[in-house]
Request: fold
Amino acid sequence: MLDIAPWKRILILLVTLIGIGLAVPNLFYGRVEAHNDAISAAEKAGFATPEQKAAEAGWPGFLPSTLINLGLDLRGGAHLLGEVHVQEVYKSRMNSLWPELRRVLSEARDQVGAVRRVPSPEGTLAVEIGNPDQMARAVELARTLAVPVASISGAGQTDLAITAEGNRLIVTLSEAERVATDDRTMQQSLEIIRRRVDEVGTREPTIVRQGKDRILIQVPGIGSAAELKSLIGTTAKLTFHPVVGRGTDPNARPGIGNILVPSLDEKGVFYTLEETAVVTGEDLTDARPSFDQNGQPAVEFRFGPSGAKRFGAFTAANVGQPFAIVLDNQVISAPVIREAIPTGSGQISGSMNIDQSTQLAVLLRAGALPAQMTFLEERTIGPELGQDSIDAGRLAAIIGTVGVIAYIVASYGLFGVFASIAVSVNVILILGIMSLMGATLTLPGIAGIVLTVGTAVDANVIIYERIREELRKGRRVGPSISTGFQEAMSAIIDANITTFIAALVMFFLGSGPVKGFAVTLTIGLVTSVFTAIFLTRLMIAVWYERTRPKQLIL
Amino acid sequence: MAFRLKLVPDDTRINFFRWQWLTFGISAAAMIASIIITLTMGLNFGIDFKGGTTIRTETTTPVDVGTYRQALDGLGLGDVAITEVFDASFGANKHVTQIRIGPQTNAQAVTPEELTEVEAALKKVDPNVTFAAVESVGPKVSGELIKTAFYSVGAATIGILLYIWLRFEWQFAIGGVFALVHDVVLTVGIFSLFQLKFDLTTIAALLTILGYSINDTVVVFDRLRENLMKFKSMPLIDVMNLTVNETLSRTIMTAVTTAIALTAMLVFGGDVIRGFVFAMLWGVFVGCYSTIYVAKNIVLWLGVKRDWSKKVRTDAATEAEGHGTPFSDMP
Reply:
């Protein structure tokens, strides 16, 4: 057991050295971080400013520069858990389907009779037809609007589920399409949130989907969750609608296919609009802050080709009529169309200041969230608290490590020194592996490292106690050490696997602090087995070869 | 002769099972007491599990909790709890309070308006106040968090049960898991008794206690299995006593090192994670106790099949699998 092949020795040392090398940049956290930031900023911009060059030179490029990701509880920042109302999309899909369905059915008017939309639950489209006996024909016509679902699970299905009930034709999204739609909605929301968060240029935000309809957003360095929320939570859904009427009664019945929308700057005024929008914000290609002809802040926007075409056709057909610009369910303005606007560009003006117009332009440019979000969980951690926690954690880790080392050295003498080196290397390896993986270190994670320091000694203790027993039986030093290692192995492996099971469960089921803790605990288990079994043995082997002791006091 | 610190003498012959009924009785009584305490006093659930908002304020001037409460009274927030936090690591001009606002009726965590109102009201009575951390959890999520927390503790227990069962005998698995349940129940009991904040980090601590406690149990079981093969005709109770004595030094050694590390964290780690570290420290002690007095008592009562003609063969097979081949050839 004590003769270790040279290449194995080299391998053990190499792993240790690589681990230490990976951990080193964390000692110079500020400098390395500035170096990394400067490089990525320069890459993005295509050139480097003198400050960026200086920051880049602050850390030599040939050294490893991966860092441990500090969690929000250590760095400060905001955490949001949002739920996307994916069902909202069903509703808008049905609303946009209605004009098409009306067109298809009214072309066959002589067969199916008059067509009329009737009230129905959200996400379904109910249509009454004049000749119920021709329902089969109506269903057949409606089916022509359905397209196959393009997803693996939904293969062979179409996107619409069409049923008949008496004289009513009921259209909903099919099950497969709902799944596919939800998925698209989530991806789109993620993308839009990512773009909006990127606009403010913070470092390494975490934006991930959680479960079916949730999104977790963590942004380090941002002032508060409220700030983050106002940045991403604003739906900024821009639509242009034909105006049906204008009034002051908030309870007026707008009629089927119409909606009642309050005005933003005229209190108590409500517009009745056609629910189906002519153009939506999704057709926008550009939006930027500007000023209107009166010198008031405004937002100038431009549509893409298809949006421009629709906008042009609509304005050409409705000269003299008002149209409403609706932002997040409020009419911003309802100008009268003076002439056709074929270029697809326009202006939103209303009562806003320069900040607001800038903000609105950002939101429009980033696109609208496809559905509304509710925030289920929000946390803000101030940067000072984070720094306090790091300081406290560091102090505790140092004192804990010193205490443990003092105790094992007092108990096992030279072998205790070996164990202490192994434990210290263990901590360094944990930090190195975490840097390499870009894992996030949280406050409970620090506690996990401290606990690992405590239990990492366990493997050494099991081995040493075995060696003691062998020595007590009067065996010679070499064989005692060999047997000690051999006999301890089963207990070490069993003990670590059981802890590993607990850590794995924490990682997969846990969230937040539990997960952070599980990460360091898991890495710590692996590294502690390495240091206790390989590194300690290497040290003892080298010591044994050199001194060839006749006697060992342990 | 070199100095060696030895908390446990080389050759101990303590009869751990002399008081087996008494110790087991104490364990059982402590468990029942814990359950009763938890049921009657309840747990001081943090916002993770209950929903609501916590605000951590920091200010340079001494805090009068009464003024804060008055400032917030008019806002109609319902259940508001304000506690001042004291910690050795704070400087003389650092005063911290923890404000907890019960869940409001909406599904959202908290409305930004409410939060702004609270912050403005506090600023009014103390212009120096800063908000070091603000956390809100909506009632919808908190319910789910409780559920996953329960699942995770349950899943970890089942995973460990299966592993011990595969690796040892079913009696060991039952003994080990019973010890785990004992530790978890006692820890929950302590949290209820002292009304310590019970949140997600506490669950992390509980899972760690599971890991630590079973770690300890498995090391002793491992030796027990070995001794059962070595001393084939010795009564089970004697083999167990021998095993505990043999491993006692290691048990104490590991418990002490872990306790040193955790105590450092408890004293110097700051108030933010104190509850979490406390739970783990307590778990180390309970885990140590339960290994000796709960897990093995149960194995003793269940008995281990000692039909040696068959037993030796199966055990040898397990041994060969366990620490024979795969590991002894490594460097």
Summary: Residues 84 and 213 of chain A are 5 Å apart (CA to CA). DSSP finds 16 helices and 19 strands in chain A. The radius of gyration of chain A is 34 Å. The first strand of chain A starts at residue 69 and ends at 70.
